[in-house]
Amino acid sequence: MILRRAAVSAARLASPAAAIPRRTITQLHNEAHPNQPSSMRENLEFFKTFKKTTGQLGTRVAPHYRPHAVANNPPAPKDLTLELLLASGAHLGHATSLWNPGNQRYIYGTRQGIHIISLESTISHLRRAAKVVEGVTNNGGLVLFVGSRKGQARSVVEAAKIAGGCHLFEKWVPGTITNGKMIVGHGEVVEIDMADRKSPEGAKEGDPLRPDLVVCLNMKENYVLLHECGLLGIPTIGILDTDCNPEWVTYPIPANDDSLRCTQLIAGVLGRAGETGRLNRIRKAQAMDHFHGRQQLEEEEKLREEEQLRQEEKLKEEQLLRESAQEL
Predict the structure, then answer these.
(1) Which residues form the signal peptide (predicted)?
(2) CATH 3.40.50.10490 is the classification of domain 82-282
(3) 23 or 286: whose pLDDT is higher?
(4) Angle, CA 13 vertex, CA 12 and CA 14 arms, to 5°
């Protein structure tokens, strides 16, 4: 019996299937795709020809999601898509046992014990919040971006930088807004006009400024900040996860606050909206300065013409007096 099994195994090894020669990946590629290039040089030439012939058709499809591109160049609110939110993980909520019943209208469903956030609600609420940020910066308001979790410092700083606001990525000191004179103290305050030009008088001694709008990326760790803003009537924008209370903020954005890509995307979109409002304000201020400058030039030209007419009339009167004196 043992000899028979050994003979069968030897016969299988000696079969033609076991004698198939090994082939390289390039040979297999050439056999499967005989009309496509195989080497790197041929591949480069193929893509150059393809780009030359069909590259001007007007269609460009991004091959994959690139979070570094979103971080360096955040999209505008009008360019935001559901695919981008889905790729950033904005739809992932917490376990169903941790949910807040006030977020039921923002929940799309449940999968494997985790709530799924409706991205349609996310994109609509995010665009509404972007309009609020744009309106505040357009009117010369101060926006404060807050994100105290690990990894949120860069997104908070970049958003505040492009929006022309302030940022905070450390723990909030209780009473900074409600009792700022005692905690922050007095300091130098620089006055700027609507075109972001500093006052020629320089810095003055004054009380600490209060933000006109607060954007919070992690609500649960900054409940004291949101409570202080509510006491003083300062509007707030916050990323609302399924375990957060929607009554803490004025403009909630239902999304995943545990994903750094999601918080970075939302902060970038809001920062871009703030930049749009700030640039519109500067453009209007410069246009008004140009208009007032042109109006001032017209008034000066009019005054010069009136002065010239008065001098001409005076010369005519003097000439008439001389002529009358000569006749006498």
Answers:
(1) none
(2) yes
(3) 286
(4) 90
